[in-house]
Specification:
Layout: H1 10-20, H2 27-47, H3 56-68, H4 75-89
Helix pairs in contact: 1-2, 2-3, 2-4
Length: about 90
Amino acid sequence: MNTTLDITTVENLYNYLDGLFEQNIDDDSLFASGYIRGFISLAASDYGDEQQVISEALVNAIGLGLQQAKKELTPQDSVIVQNFWQQLQSKLSY
């Protein structure tokens, strides 16, 4: 995956996640990206719209939501989601 992305807004983040479906990535990553996208939408609605710049507060809110929902997932799926979230955070500019 490209680590020199310019993901600075929620819209950029959505575009990145949408683009994953056109790439040859594994099913676990597709699952995690879709799951996390829901938490991004929830958190983003509290901070603004899709044009908003990604902030530390937004990233923390997404992480908190994922942590609180951890019990909804199997232990294996939880690890997949957490690993994907950590990788995704490294691509964000905030």
